[in-house]
Amino acid sequence: MATAPLLASSTVLDLAQPLPLDGGQQLDGVRIAYETYGTLAADRSNAILICHALTGDQHVASPHPITGKPGWWVRMVGPGKPIDTDRFFVICANVLGSCMGSTGPASLAPDGKPWGMRFPVITVRDMVRAHVALLDALGIDCLHAVVGGSMGGMQALSLAANFPERAAAVLVLASTARHSAQNIAFHEVGRQAIMADPKWKDGDYYGSAGQGGKGPEKGLAVARMAAHITYLSEEGMHDKFGRNLQDRSEKTFGFDADFQVESYLRYQGLSFIERFDANSYLYITRAMDYFDLAEEHGGRLADAFANSTARFCLVSFDTDWLYPTPESRSIAHALNAAGCPVSFMELSAPFGHDSFLLEVPALDGVIKGFLGA
């Protein structure tokens, strides 16, 4: 029996004040697109902020308006689910710099033209500043919890470090306190694929959209394909695809998608360009690469949490080679050094980095237990 879609409230907030950025600039006219689920308690004590990953958006548990697909975490958010909307008021905002309603490179600048590459450089902390402005507008002084996986985990950590009074609990899934050289390298491959596409036009491709152009679609698709490889595990790819060939009546050799894994990656790339903006991809991946929570606080990670009174839960996955378990363990050690209460666990799952999004029953129990404590 099919489950009815969870009723969500979709809203766009226009910030009345300029948003200060780490780069020293202020961004005027910032818009924050967000969705809420459930009911806010009278004392505003039951709010949970979910922070999305690089290619996510605010449609955490409602159908995507472009693709029609279910929300990216619909298995986790809803009545009676681990993030129970019968109990909690759930908020998910599209990050600053993205392309699903929040201000980003595709938005109009003060001169009436799309920002493009004139958009100011942003950081993860800038994204969190926008989240805090949203919480202020909603009258929420302290969250019951902030929750995030991957880049969403970076935002959760940044909020805990820079706005320690705004969350009573912090749940971080498959994330890191800074990018490794390998992480940065994979992102750079994707960025170069976009910028090498002739249709990128130095980021000034929006004007051609009305004339049938859609920007650097091929470059963006390749960037998505390269990134998607890092989200999977070798075991998972082998079990799902192996060296299986496409089912064809005649065997042909060449540069078509002969192998099933090739076809899968091309599908991921082509479906991605329907819903994402290439310039947003450039800006957000750069923000992730700049993220270094220890460097922001004098070079010692424990000092980032010196003023925190929140309790923390960190979860890693044994097949995640993008943000492997030692990354989470180092954060746990820093939290211990800062005297913060922290639980840390590595879960077993075959899905690689994407495990926090997929069917891992043990994760359901961890999230439900931590949020209900």
UniProtKB/TrEMBL annotation:
Residues given in the record as substrate binding sites: 224, 354
SUPFAM superfamilies associated with the record: alpha/beta-Hydrolases (SSF53474)
Top EC class for this record: transferase
UniProt keyword terms in alphabetical order: Acyltransferase, Amino-acid biosynthesis, Cytoplasm, Methionine biosynthesis, Transferase
Localization (cell): Cytoplasm
One Pfam family matching this protein: Abhydrolase_1
Active site, renumbered: 150, 320, 353
Single Gene Ontology BP annotation: methionine biosynthetic process
Molecular function GO labels: homoserine O-acetyltransferase activity
Catalysed reaction, written as an equation: L-homoserine + acetyl-CoA = O-acetyl-L-homoserine + CoA
Pathway in which the depicted protein is active: Amino-acid biosynthesis; L-methionine biosynthesis via de novo pathway; O-acetyl-L-homoserine from L-homoserine: step 1/1
Domain of life: Bacteria
EC numbers on record: 2.3.1.31
Main function: Transfers an acetyl group from acetyl-CoA to L-homoserine, forming acetyl-L-homoserine.
Subunit structure: Homodimer.
Family indicated by similarity: Belongs to the AB hydrolase superfamily. MetX family.
Protein name per its UniProtKB record: Homoserine O-acetyltransferase
Organism the protein comes from: Novosphingobium flavum
This protein's encoding gene: metXA
